[in-house]
């Protein structure tokens, strides 16, 4: 498993011992920040923070082709599936939301898959802790790469990572970690396009 830093690119095939990947899962996890000190005794329970994982598909001309998010759980062609909305965060160290990608059936006109996270309710990253995204090889459950979404901030969204398909049909992953503002994936298009 490789822990990515912002701007780092990996060839997914290299991270799997030069084996071609068929299906991957992009997992997202987070915890609400727990009250500390004096205020912890005054507050009962933890505040739920609802983050949403999404995937946007673009062609080589940077034209958006499709969006997969909690309100559209499957891509039009069926190659990408969202497992559903989670409104509270991680439980027991497991991913709160997952997007499953069948790389072999993603239409060839799709050049980029961009993974984002945003808060529909407008929560900022100052309100979350232990946020991450990770890529898992579905064939064996191996975690290929992980990117920690650390640092907090007043932004309500982040463009986490993109997968780019090269001329041979191989996929590379780039950790972006670009902070932005938006409550739905469609609002993030200008930021995404600037990163393609």
Description:
- With 196 residues, the protein is mainly β.
- It is built from 2 helices and 12 strands; from the N terminus they run E-E-E-H-E-E-E-E-E-E-E-E-E-H.
- Strand 11 and strand 12 form a beta hairpin.
- 36% of the residues are buried.
Walk me through the topology:
Elements: E1 2-4, E2 9-11, E3 23-32, H1 38-42, E4 52-58, E5 64-68, E6 80-82, E7 97-102, E8 112-118, E9 128-137, E10 142-148, E11 157-165, E12 171-180, H2 189-195
Parallel strand pairs: 1-10
Antiparallel strand pairs: 2-12, 3-7, 3-9, 4-5, 4-8, 6-7, 8-11, 9-10, 11-12
Shape field: globular
Largest sheet: 6 strands, mixed
Structural class: mainly beta
Average pLDDT reading: 83
Low-confidence stretches: none
CATH homology-level superfamily: sav2460 like domains
**CATH overall fold name:** Lipoxygenase-1
State the end-to-end distance. Answer: 25 Å
- Please estimate the helix content: under 10%
Under the CATH scheme, the architecture is Sandwich
Domain unit count: 1
Q: Can you count the helices?
A: 2
Q: How many E strands?
A: 12
Whole-angstrom Rg: 17 Å
Adjacency order of strands in the biggest sheet = 1-10-9-3-7-6
Q: Give the SSE order as H and E letters.
A: EEEHEEEEEEEEEH
CATH class: Mainly Beta
What percentage of amino acids are in beta strands? Answer: 35-45%
